[in-house]
Amino acid sequence: LQDKVPEVLSSFRAAGIVVWVLTGDKQETAVSIGYSSQMYSRDTNLHCFKTTTLESTRQRLNEIMEYTPTGQVHKQALIINGCSVEHLMTQELRKDFLALCQTCQTVICCRVTPLQKSFLVSVIRS
Asked: pTM, whole model, 2 decimals?
């Protein structure tokens, strides 16, 4: 990591800024980088999406949303694989997914393609 990256990301977290990481790395690598860069700490709840179908993605999203009160940022992070991103960005799930993201300190999308990265950025900006 470059100098001061952990400190800056820790400051973002303390200020309530949600940090997004879009990477082609494996999930294990992305989780490790998240810890070493202080995007989250050992006591942060990590919610992983490793789903392969729309139905399993919907179920996982509902499980996490049931656990998470809306309206404020919680000590939690989402770790999402590329296949799950594909399903979460459908019209059916997108609104709930984005609402959930607003309650997290960090969202890491791993194993995502350049096209998925582009789509995520455009959706988040709008």
From this structure: 0.88
Q: pLDDT for 1-45, tens place per residue?
A: 688 888 898 888 788 788 899 999 999 999 998 888 888 888 888
Matching residue, tokens 């350049």: 114
Category of 16 on φ-ψ map: left (φ > 0), alpha (ψ -120 to 50) or beta: left
Cα 46 to chain centroid, rounded: 9
Give the residue among 28, 32, 17, 36 at the shortest CA–CA distance from 104. 17
Q: Which two tokens stand for residue 66?
A: 């049931």
Report d(CA 67, CA 56) in Å as an integer: 17
Q: Taking Cα atoms as reference points, which of 27, 26, 88 lies closest to residue 56?
A: 88
Asked if 107 and 30 count as a contact pair (C-beta separation under 8 A), the reply is no
CB within 8 A of 80, min separation 6: which ones? 48, 49, 88, 107, 108, 109, 110
